[in-house]
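In this supplementary section we document a worked example of the pipeline. Step one takes a protein sequence of length 456 as its only input; no multiple sequence alignment statistics are reported here. Step two produces a three-dimensional model, which step three serialises into structure tokens for compact storage. The input and output of this example are shown verbatim.
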Amino acid sequence: MSSFAQFVCAGTVRSSDDGQRNYGILAFLSSAVCYCMTIRAKRKIKMVESMNLSTSRYGDYPEGEDDTSHIPDNSVPPPTSYTSDCSSASVPQRRSQVYDPHSDIWGHLSGKKVHRQESLNLSSEICIEDPGEESHFEVRHRHVHLPDRLVLIRHGESLGNVNSDLYGEVPDNAMPLTDFGWEQAYAAGRVLKDEILKDLQEGDCSRVHFVVSPYVRTVETFNGIVSAWSDPRKAGKKEDGGTPTTRAERMRAWYEDLASMGISWHEDPRLREQDFGNYQDPDAIRQCQSERHAFGPFYYRYPDGESASDVYDRASTFLESLFRSFRSDPGRVYVLVTHGIAIRVLLCRYFRYSVDQYHKLANPENCECVVLKKDGRSLDLEGRYALTIEEREFKRGNREDDAVGDLLTEKRVVGHEFHTSLKQLPSCLKLTRKIRMCPEDDIEAKENMDGSYVNV
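The serialised model returned by step three reads:
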């Protein structure tokens, strides 16, 4: 006799006494709850088994990412299996035949586009017990919402870029742009509007949403960029020539003008720069920079600050929020106005670069635009737009031939260049981990032409 039936009988036999009757009722209710929980647990286990691909393959990536979006081989590799970090089960997966953490990053460094699989039949890789029942995975990933463009822009030149000693007096978050930094922001706005988004000016794709780091230099860069759509110095002017009197009124009129053109924005602290400490002592920072290269730039944590791996963690949560925004409003183009290290880490997180591949990347130049373009079910690197800078030296004085005064450098933006590959560090600054294949592996050995090795 089952425990459920025993509890029912107990409640019936002892019904002659009020206390025993109450005991029987409570026993019956308890057994009913236990029975329902058992059935529900069995159903959940069955659902998880049928969704094993969903829980392991997409467990640690933002929704919408596709593990087959980048295949660094010129031929489509056959389906293989591997053990996911999120599950011990073997998961069918399409991956490259040979993984080399030191190789080119899906062609992002060389600029050579590698072969990619344009479509993926998800239903062929999902085991469903009932063929007539649609799985939760198919319902969830039937439609992947991605913007046509995702643009990452570094801030313009700041006072800290010109004189790093100022970080000892001015907080990093309060460092403003220089006059040349404003010129770069204006130029980046023209490039964004007239070049990057020129084919997306019709329909919903004309709506652009900016996500901005809350630091002063990035918000000022944003203000300079969106001036390509509406100049704040002209916003709110009336037909009779009058203008708003207070700064708050002018700002409100400017934002309303931008909103009417489809421009929106919000700040996100997760896009902030890597924290190098509070007020940064110049000598201590220079010592840390020399130690960082020997220790490993990705892992080195500044005193009272962060490491790049810490930035990686918050970039992961930011991407999750960003992909939810894609799904809630898929018609918008997204632009991230942030910092150099943040851009490198975001690319590293989304494209799953290895640590050695991260160490090959250099920070983008000020107001450089890195463009990701929708390609099927994923975002792929289209290229980067770098501003062309012209420098001219002159002496401080009234005449060019004045012998009195310091020799100054004047910079101005004269155009822009498009590159299909990401910017790399010089070879002398690239750091590569030394990982042995076996205890006898001699990493320091040099390979000869005949395939033999000699110690170096």
